Amino acid sequence: MTADIALSHRAAHWAAGIPALQGMSRACAVRLIDRRTGAAHRINGTPLTLFTRRPHEAAAELLAGRDASVWEVRVDPLEPEERQ
């Protein structure tokens, strides 16, 4: 399995577990969270945050190569939900 396919599969599996994120096109902040402390992963003291309209892809990138028992991803919408 190539890395691209593995990432796509992992992202699809992750998004499938969170129905609210399926088809989401509004802007989101995606953070990598340490399950042991509940704190965001920091780089030089700044929390690692990705801003995106594709949270499942950002989550897959953040979790790639990391132990899922230690890390989780938190997605926070930045825009109000669109009404139909």
Question: How are the SSEs placed, and which strands pair?
Answer:
Layout: H1 3-16, E1 28-34, E2 42-43, E3 46-47, E4 49-52, H2 55-63, E5 71-77
Antiparallel strand pairs: 1-4, 1-5, 2-3
Helix pairs in contact: 1-2
Q: Main attributes?
A:
84 residues, alpha+beta, three-stranded antiparallel beta sheet, two-stranded antiparallel sheet, elongated, disordered N terminus
Please tell me about this protein's structure.
This protein is of the alpha+beta class and 84 residues long. It has one domain. Helix content is 27%, strand content 26%. It contains two helices and five strands, in the order αββββαβ. It has helices at residues 3-16, 55-63; strands at 28-34, 42-43, 46-47, 49-52, 71-77. The strands form two sheets. Strands 4-1-5 form a three-stranded antiparallel sheet, covered by helices on one side. A two-stranded antiparallel ribbon has the order 2-3. α1 packs across α2 (55-63). The termini are far apart. Residues 1-12 have low confidence and may be disordered.
